Amino acid sequence: MTNTTNMPIKRNKSSIQRRLIPTYIFLIIASFLSVFPFYWMISAATNKTLDVARGKLTFGSAAGENLHNLLANYDLWTALGNSFKYAIVQTVVALFICSLAGYGFELYHDKYKDLVFSILLLAMMVPQVATMIPLFKMMSKMGFLNTVWGFMLPAISTPFLIMMFRQNSRNFPIDILEAARIDGLSEIMIFFRMYLPVMKATYAAAAVITFMNAWNSYLWPKVVLNKTEAQTMPMLIANISGGYTVDYGLLMMGVLFCSVPTMVIFFILQRQFTEGITGAVK
Amino acid sequence: MKKKLVSMMLVGAMTVTAITGCGSSGTTETAETTEETAETTEESAEATEETAEATEETAETTEAAAASEEGSNTLTVWAWDANFNIPALEAAAEDYKANVDSTFELNIVEQSQSSDVEDAITLAGSSGDYSALPDIVLFQDHYIQRYVADYPDAWNTLEGADIDWDDFGAEKLSYSTIDGVHYGVPVDNGTAIMAYRVDLLEEAGYTLDDMTGCTWEKFIEVGKAVYEKTGKYLLCMDGDGNDLIYMMLQAEGQSQFTDGVPNFTENETLKEVCSLIVQMAQENVLYLANDWSDYTDQAIQGDMVAGVMNGNWIIPTIEQVSDNSGKWEITSLPTINGGEGYAANGGSSLYITSNSKNVELAQKFLAATFGAGSTATYDAALTNGGVITCSAKAGESDVYQQGVEYFNNQAIYAKIVEMGANVPVVEQSDYHYSARSVLATAIINAINGADLDAEIEQAESDLKFEMGIN
After folding, report:
1. Interface test with A, best of B112, B126, B293 (most A CBs within 10 A)
2. For the segment B113-151, what is each residue's pLDDT rounded down to a tens digit?
3. Domain of B96: which CATH number?
4. What is the ipTM of this complex?
5. What is the pTM of this model?
6. In CATH terms, is domain A66-277 a member of 3.30.70.970?
7. Which of A48, B77, B101, B445 has the most CB atoms in a 10 Å sphere around its CB?
8. Which residues of chain B does A277 touch, with a Cβ-Cβ cutoff of 8 Å?
C-alpha cells in the first residue's frame, strides 16, 4: 500500500534530478572557468617568476619574498589609497547625481522629459575614445589634471546609471510619494527620506557597478593622472607588467591587492546586487 | 523566474569574460591595442583640431601641469621599465647631484610601456595642449622620426648642448638625428648579440670559435646537430614580432626600405634571409614562439634553447635561469657569405619636450650624464640596470672590462660596445614595425607550406597599402 502511493513521487523526484544534470554540468564548468583564474592568481602570487612561467599551479613558498619586493620597489600604499579615494568619491557622487536624475525622470511629469531622456541616451552612443581629447583639454584648462576631479568628473553622470534608476523607479509606489506630500514633506526631503530607503537594493547594485568601473578604469586615468603620486592600482599593475623581463610572482601579488577590494565589496552587496539588477523594491 | 534568468545571464557573462580573459596575452598584444587606441584618438583628434587651434592661446597661459617650474632645480622625466631604464636614470640623477649640483632633483614618473609615452605625445599633439608633458621623455628609437615629423611642436632640439657626438655609434645616432639636427641623447645600446650555450655546442662537437663569423649554412648544420644531440633549438624568436629579418638584413648592410619605399620583391638578400628563416624553422634549428611571452617565458626561461639572437637587452631574460650560469657566451651574428655580422635592435633615447621650462638645465643634465660628460652614470647604469652604453668613451671604463660570471667570465659589455661601433647604418623607416609584422606573417605562412615568393609579394603590397603607396 505504502509502496504504491510513494512510487510516483519518487519517480517524479528522480526525473527532476535527472533533468537538472545538464544544468549542473553547465554550472560546474562555468564556475570552474570563473574561479580558476582567481586560484591561479593566488597560487602564482606565492611562486617565483620562473615557476609561474613554467606553469606551476600549486602553492609555493615565495609569497613573503614577492610581497617584500612589491613593497620595496613600488609605492603600493599610495596607489591603493588613491584607488580607494577616487573610487569611493566617484561612487558616492555618481550615485547621488544619477539617482536624483532617474527619480526626476520617472516621478515628475513634463512633456519634454522623454525628449531630454532620448538626448541623454544619445550620449551613450558616443564612444569614450572620441571624447577623450576634448575632455583632456577641458580638464587641463580647468587645472584638474592629477586631481580626483579630473578622474571622476567625466564619469559621475552616466546614461547607464540614470537609465537604471529610472527603470527601477517604476517600482517605487507612487502612493508613498503622495502620502508624503499630503503630510507636508518637501520635495527634496521626499527623495532623501522616502525614495532613498526604499530603493536600497538599486543603490547597492549601482554602487557595485560604479565602484568596479572606477576601480578598474585605466585609459582615462592614464590620460589625466601623470604623476607618480597620483597613480592608481591598475596603473601600478601595468607598470609592473611592463619592461623586458616581467616578474610574474610579484605581478600576481600586485594583482591580488588590486582584486581583493572589488571582491569584498561584491560579496558584501551580492544579495542586494541581484535584487537591484532585477528591480526589486522593498 | 526573472531572477533565475538574470542569474543565468550573469553566470554566462562571467564565463565569457573568463574565457576571453584567458585568451589575452603578451606585452606585444597590449602594445598593439594601445597603438590602435592611439590611432583612433588621432582620428577623432582631427575633428577637434579647429577648436584646438582656437583655444591654443589659452593653453599657453595655463600653468604647466607636469614639467618642472621655471628656475627650479628639478626635472621631470617619463620612462618605462623599472628593471632597466629607471635604474639608469636614477644613476644619472645621482651622478649629477654628486658632481655638478647637489640641490638637483630628478622626478622619474614610471610608465608601463614605451607606447604610454607615444600615446601621451599623440594626445598632447592632437589637442595642441602640451602642458601635461614632462621636461624629458624616454622614446623608442624606431618611432621617434615619425613623432618628430607628426608633432614637431612637441620637441626641443639639443642644439647648443655640450655633447661630443662623435663619441657615439653612428648607427644609434641615425635615429635621433633628424635633418642633421640632434634631438635625443642615447641611453642604451641596442647592439644585437648572438648568445650560445657553449656546453651544448661542445656536446654537439662545436666551439664558439666555429660559430664566430660563420655562414648561416654552417649555422643550420650546427643547429641540426645540436637539436639531435640535446633536443634544444639553436635559435629562437617571437614569431609574431619577428626581429630576425631586420637583424639578419642589417648584418648584410641592407634595409627593407629603399628611399622610403618597401623593397621586398626586388631585394634578393631579403628573400634569401626569409628563406633561411623558413628553412631553420622547418629543420628544428629555430623555435618560432607564438608571441612575446612565449618567447621570453617558455623558450628562453623555459630552457628550450641553446642560442638567442636579439638586442643585448635580452641578457637579463637569459640570466633569469640561474642553473645555466657560466654556460653562456656571446659573439657576433652569422652572415650569408661568412664573416662577422653586426646589427642592432630596439633601444631608446632621451628627448627634451617643448613643455620644458628649464631647457638649459635639461641640456646640461643630459650632457653631463648620458652625454658621457662623466662615465659614472653609465657605470652605475650597467651595474644596477644592465644598461649598456653606446658611448665609446664610457665603454672604456673598468666596469666594462670585468668578466661576467653568468657568461663564463667573458667581458661581454666591452665586447658589446666594440660590436656596437661596427653596426652598419641602414635606411630606417617610420613603418619599421609594420614591415616587421607583414614579413612575420609571410614567414609563418611559408613555414605552413605557402610559396615564399608569393607571400613576400603579398607582404610588400600589404605594406604599401598601409603606407598609402600605389
Report:
1. B112
2. 888 999 999 999 998 999 999 999 999 988 898 899 899
3. 3.40.190.10
4. 0.75
5. 0.78
6. no
7. B77
8. 6, 10
